[in-house]
Amino acid sequence: MAGIPKLETPQRAGQRDALGNSNRTDRQTQGPRAKYMLYPYYALMITTTAATQYMMIRMVLGHKTWFGSN
């Protein structure tokens, strides 16, 4: 059977490609309501990360409150 070309089968859910990547994240970002669920999540993640970094920098500088010099 050396003359028969190998047919590529489509990737199914849960399977991994040759590099070990799965298509799970692609399925989560597709769909009609994906942006309504993901954009608030991204906004909340960015906001909490920024607030945490802001307070860590203030603590390093010696300020223990969100605003002011104390």
TrEMBL record:
Polar residues biased stretches: 20-31
Compartment annotation: Mitochondrion inner membrane
Keyword Mitochondrion: yes
UniProt-annotated stretches for the region Disordered: 1-31
InterPro entries referenced in this protein's UniProt entry, alphabetically: COX7a
Database matches in Pfam families: COX7a (PF02238)
Transmembrane segments: 39-57
Domain of life: Eukaryota
Main location as per UniProt: mitochondrion
Key words, A-Z: Membrane, Mitochondrion, Mitochondrion inner membrane, Transmembrane, Transmembrane helix
The protein, known as: Uncharacterized protein
Native organism: Zasmidium cellare (Wine cellar mold)
